[in-house]
Amino acid sequence: MLLEHKNAVIYGGAGSVGRAVARAFAREGARVFLAGRTLATLDKVATELAGAPGAVETAQVDALDQRAVDEHADAVAERAGGIDVSFNAISHGDVHGLPLLQMSFEDFARPISTAMRAQFLTTRAAARHMTGQGSGVIMTITATTARLAIPEVGGTGVTFDAIESSCRQWACELGPHGVRVVWLQTTGLPETLADSGVWPAYGTGSEAGMTRAELIDWQQQKTQLNRLTSLAEVGNVAAFLASDHAAAMTATAANLSCGQVPAR
Asked: Are 154 and 96 spatial neighbours (Cβ–Cβ below 8 Å)?
């Protein structure tokens, strides 16, 4: 198993991405600590993973609360003997479907400020323990909007770009201490879209929207593989990146964009 004897904290562990990563980590033998704002949903994920090789524990933690993040990281490190992996998968409160001309600054800036605060606090909390033990992997997820100029996605592209820049800075400061910082760059994730509802027709300036199927088809046409990243792929690659098999990788993304953006 790739992550046997590893201790992994997942922030936003009850969300779609957090759950997929938790499933892969537990399958590969990691002891998984799910953290999030709603304990009931975290416990549901833990129940789903009860038969996995790796143990799963839950805790109510707001990733925007500095004291809560620090205290939880300290408690995990003390109880488990250290933190080997930290994965941030929290949502950012993005607003889509409006041109910037019609968007309030608050709606534009919310995902940026939320992501930067959560990334900084969770990274710092884990890194304080990882640098002491001389090893560890800090991970998060972005999307192709960090590289592409897409109308009517509000602050999403700026948010993901900021996350990637932040990760590179953390990587250069933590690398000498044996700590790696990596992220997964995906397409849109169709499994995270609701089954019903109308989605913004990005870039059209029209109030008429797309159905879920139309939105997925529109996104697929922009990839070389004519498909989008799956949650299972996110989990599988996250497990590899967190493992010792990826020990030479830091300050970089795993490009899961199905060819939507080229590697650089």
From this structure: yes
The residues near 115 (Cβ < 8 Å, ≥ 6 apart) are: 90, 92, 159, 162, 163
Helix (H, G, I), strand (E, B) or coil at 124: helix
CB atoms under 10 Å from CB of 102, counted, come to 9
pTM over 0.85: yes
* 3-state DSSP helix/strand/coil % of the chain, to nearest 5: 45, 15, 40
Q: Which domains does the chain have, with CATH numbers?
A: 7-192+228-256 (3.40.50.720)
* Residues across the chain: 264
Predicted pLDDT of residue 200: 55
pLDDT in tens, 29-50: 999 999 999 999 999 999 999 9
Beta-strand pair 85-88/7-11: parallel
Q: Strand locations in the chain, DSSP E?
A: 7-11, 31-36, 56-60, 85-88, 136-143, 179-186, 252-256
DSSP state at residue 208: -
Nearest-angstrom CA–CA distance, 66 and 68: 6
User: Which of 21, 222, 185 is CA-nearest to residue 8?
Assistant: 21
Place of tokens 């990146």: 241
Rounded distance, CA 23 to CA 47, Å? 11
Q: Identify which of 132, 161, 121, 124 has the alpha carbon closest to the alpha carbon of residue 145.
A: 161
CA dihedral 131, 45, 187, 248 (to 10 degrees): 30
Q: What is the DSSP letter of 15?
A: S
